[in-house]
Amino acid sequence: MSGPRSFVARRLLLGVAQTVAVVLLVFALTEALPGDAAVALAGDQPDPARIAAIREAMKLDRPAWERLADWTAGLLHGDLGTSLVSGRPVSLYLADAFGPTLLLASLTVLLLVPAGFGLGVLAARHAGRPVDRLISSVTLAVYAVPEFALGVLLVTVFALRLGWLPPTAVGYGTDLAAHPAALVLPVLVLLSRPVCSLVRLVRAGMIDALASPYVAQARRYGVSGARIRYTHALPNALAPAAQQLARTVDWLLCGVVVVEALFVIPGLGTVLLGAVAERDVPVVQGLAVVFGVVTVVLNLGADLVAHRLAPRAGVAA
Amino acid sequence: MSRLRTGRFALGVTVVAVPLLLALLGPVFAGGPGPRATSFTLGGGHWLGTDFVGRDVWRQVLHGGRPVVLTALAATALAYLVALPVGLVSALTRHRRLEDLLMRPLDVLLAVPSLLLILLAATVFEPDAVGLALLVALAQVPDAARLVRAAAAEAAARPAVEALRMQGETWWRIAVGYVGRSMLRTLAADAGTRLTGVLYLVATAAFLGVGVAPDAADWAVMVDRNRTGLFVQPWAVVVPAVLIVALTTGTNLLFDAALDKGGRRTGKEARP
Amino acid sequence: MNHEHTVAEIRDLRVRVDGRLIVDGVNLRVPPGRVTALIGASGSGKTTTGLALLGEYPAGAEVTGEVRVEGGGPVGYVPQHPAAALNPARRVSALLTDIARARVRHLPVRRRRLAARERVLEAMSEAQLPSAAELLRRYPHQLSGGQQQRVVLAQALLLGARVVVADEPTTGQDALTKSRIVEQLTAVRARGIAVVLLSHDLDVVRALADEVVVLRAGRVVESGPAQRLLLAPQHAWTRELLSVEPELPLAEAPTTEQPVLRIRALTARHRDGSRAATVVLRTPELDLFPGQSLAVVGRSGSGKTTLARCVAGLHRDHDGEVLLDGAPLPRSLRDRDRGQLAAVQYVFQDAHAAFDEHRPVVHQVARTAVRLRGTDEDTALREALTTLAGLGLPEELARRHPGRLSGGELQRAALARALLARPRVLVCDEITSGLDPVTRRGILDVLTGLVRGRDGLSLVLITHDLDTASLAHRIAVLDAGELVEQGPAPQILTTPAHPVTASLVARTRAGGTTA
């Protein structure tokens, strides 16, 4: 077997390859535009001046590899290009919208871990009984629901019928932290899918571990129930859960875009959707690189953590 | 245990039946478009009121399920159409190069979040329903191919395969007759979760305006476009949203119950 | 015996699962400082009886009778695979301290930690675990098999158990590991602890047992002191169980002919990922004559299975030649033609894994004749049924799916599958390991019958067990990938030349079987 170090090396290499792939894929976007890119991007207002401006801004008259080299060099310096629509640097868009998105994402992750593990352990502890059946069914059901559908239904009930919470974040600007009430529904919606999957994994891992021969041995030898649950069974459920947390990054990204659109939060998702609608290619590219690289890095981290945590069976030579 | 399972199966069927029947048969009963009325009204001959451009919400609901369901089914089928041969060949080939050639690019693609891929493509292509199905399928291929490969490699590593080769069986008979047969359960389980995931992606993309016309009769588009009138005319949003919830939840419950053997999985026992 | 002191006792135990009696009125007395062995074929109820001492029963079992352990005290348990009983996510220190903690409850809180640590170190030295401090930091997967076994023993010692149940501790282990386990259990016995040994490994029973209880179909057929019972069994079943060795040796084999199979300058490698290959086997020269059987013996990891797989075309990564009737065989199965495939057939260790669980056994067996000899389906099916019946598998069993046959029955079917090719060389890879003695003897009888009965069929027996090897005409000994010795079986068994062979023979003798 190859040792742990070679796993880390191979995983790091894959991470680098993935980063390069993301950059290339995002760059290929302009190349994929049908016909004259500048004309295609000018869209509804194809006046010659605008076309010329776009051609100039994106340096479309130069060969692709030169533009790729320029663009990547810019990326390394934190220069993500300039918007076609407003002429502002993309990094300014990022700086403005970063706060709300980070707040949403970190709140979600902060609540995700305790909620996921807590409910998972609770369900496993009462496996087969009503509590477990309730948790299992609800997580199975909610797991599959798209955020926007869940979101509008929650808004209808809590904002419209009951009037407890604001329906959107309109009017709060980017300083959402000052208005916690506006954050309750978005975070709840954002949490729904990852929590469900985490709960199911923790539950399954715990139940597997509790049925294992080593737990049987610990019970036999009089180790207490709580100790068996938290120090014997739970660590064996950690590795698959850590792996799942990595997959969650993908979902969080999807979720952030949808939730920001739904609750009108001025974050990165909203900027991305706006740029997509206006075909503002440099902004889309800049954001896509940021999202892509963040995903790659977080996935990499989670994989390494999962690898470290993974209990290994077998015998040393 | 088995009564419990039957119960869950029945629940799944019940939950999924309403949206599925509406999606498949709705357009047959929808009838012609009536005259447009005022936006966001309740009553006035409209059972569920009118939508943002004054169309009958009930009629939109009848029409709006089919695109979601068909696009999702097509995308799932397409994803397997690519993933199955790629996964099988890379698991069963003895040429490491071929395996690398097939799987490495997919490993790299796996890093790109599905929705990001779809949004990137939407910036450039303005895809229609077919384009959306292709995109969603593309986003699913890396993961599906990896799963197929893992399941096939597991089956192909069993002594049974060597015994078959010892008997002089052909590659095809081993690949399809044994490895393929052994993978069926895993594939069926994966198809269930994948279909749910694809439904999620298709609906979410439509909600964000990808792959659909802005005034399309589509449950996800209805939720998006009628949100502005939520306070005046909630039915135009709540009904399609509930239908989407029922569709995705029901599919998931159904597959989960259908594939649960009734017994628990045994723990991963350490091998000597 | 009745007046002797006992630390545990079972009275009239009956265990019924799904209406079937697994244990039917068993009585058992366990004296301290003695090894009480429960022996019997698979399904005789010995494991259920042993676990009853721990207060554990199969799911859904109806239990009557009485199980009493002195002072209600804890009972230790040494499972077949120690790795399975050690939590992979906990370090050795945690695994041991968990148990020690319960034993220091009477002390004031602040002294508990130190006292627990002392007890852990003490138990480790008693279980012969060296360099304790360093070992404590490791996870189970970082220990060798022997160390894992000793950690499990240390757990039982920490528990202060007066009774230890050892469940098939030596099954599937090579001679060296076996003798180490015997030593450890002897040390446990010397501490005055009662050992209840559940085993179908008669070597270990002979080496360890003070009392023997013979079980059959959930009932005690015979019990008594080991000496008396093993030397002069009263009951017919006990005699059958104990007479493992079929009569030696095989008929003299003709060696005047040309060898059917010749191995020349074979070097086999294993590749791990993309890293450099490691050589796992070097065999300069090995011949197999028609009508002869050759046993390849060695410890686990000695390369004997790799040798067999090279011959069968299942291990491509090797240099050198495997010659069939003087013509080189292609390295990979894929490049062998039908005649070459048919000539060299292979029977796998794990019969369950070697069959397709979705098709009836007889259909899978018949395919050999269809593919390798071009017979039509009907003829092949008839031939398969005849061959299976000849090997002791009636049609009713042969038409079942593999999941509904026992390991011994499936191994017979696997032999039939290979024989339908009418092979010149049959390679059997540890096909009896893990079977109980009665089943194993059945399979070995079939094998000896094959070599005697078939004209010119040659057998390659891969085994870690010298008893099985002694059935062969010739024996080749592998150690760490090198062929260290080969020769006629009687010569190897009586005057081993290489130290590795000598130690294998000595250990087998110590087990007391090669009488």
From TrEMBL, chain A:
Keywords of this entry: Cell membrane, Membrane, Transmembrane, Transmembrane helix, Transport
Task: Supply the name of the protein.
Answer: ABC transporter permease
Record InterPro entries: BPD_transp_1_N, MetI-like, MetI-like_sf
Question: Residue limits of the ABC transmembrane type-1 domain?
Answer: 98-306
As for membrane topology, the entry says: Multi-pass membrane protein
The family note in this entry says: Belongs to the binding-protein-dependent transport system permease family.
Report any Pfam family annotated for this entry: BPD_transp_1_N
Main subcellular localisation: membrane
Q: Does the keyword Transport apply?
A: yes
Sequence intervals crossing the membrane = 102-122, 134-164, 176-196, 251-277, 283-302
Q: From the Swiss-Prot or TrEMBL record, state where the protein is found.
A: Cell membrane
UniProtKB/TrEMBL annotation, chain B:
Q: Which PROSITE patterns match?
A: ABC_TM1 (PS50928)
**Primary localization:** membrane
**Annotated SUPFAM superfamilies:** MetI-like
Membrane topology designation: Multi-pass membrane protein
Provide the species name.
Streptomyces edwardsiae
In this record, what's one Pfam family?
BPD_transp_1
Boundaries of each ABC transmembrane type-1 domain copy?
A: 69-255
The cross-references to InterPro entries, in alphabetical order and at most eight, read:
BP-dependent_transpt_permease, MetI-like, MetI-like_sf
Alphabetically sorted, this entry's keywords are: Cell membrane, Membrane, Transmembrane, Transmembrane helix, Transport
Q: Where, per UniProt, does this protein localize?
A: Cell membrane
Transmembrane annotation, as ranges = 68-93, 105-125, 195-214, 234-255
Protein family (similarity comment):
Belongs to the binding-protein-dependent transport system permease family.
Q: Which domain of life is it from?
A: Bacteria
According to UniProt, the name of this protein is: ABC transporter permease subunit
Automatic annotation (TrEMBL), chain C:
What domain of life is recorded for the organism? Bacteria
| Location(s) in or outside the cell | Cell membrane
Do you know which Pfam families this protein is assigned to?
ABC_tran
PROSITE patterns in alphabetical order: ABC_TRANSPORTER_1, ABC_TRANSPORTER_2
Tell me where in this chain the ABC transporter domain is found. 8-242, 261-505
Q: Which GO terms describe its molecular function?
A: ATP binding
According to its record, how does it sit in the membrane? Peripheral membrane protein
Q: Which Gene3D superfamilies match?
A: P-loop containing nucleotide triphosphate hydrolases
User: Chief localization class?
Assistant: membrane
Keywords, comma-separated and alphabetical: ATP-binding, Cell membrane, Membrane, Nucleotide-binding, Transport
Similarity comment text for this entry:
Belongs to the ABC transporter superfamily.
PANTHER family cross-referenced by the UniProt entry? DIPEPTIDE TRANSPORT ATP-BINDING PROTEIN DPPD (PTHR43297:SF2), OLIGOPEPTIDE TRANSPORT ATP-BINDING PROTEIN APPD (PTHR43297)
**Protein name, entry field:** ATP-binding cassette domain-containing protein
Could you tell me which species this protein originates from? Streptomyces edwardsiae
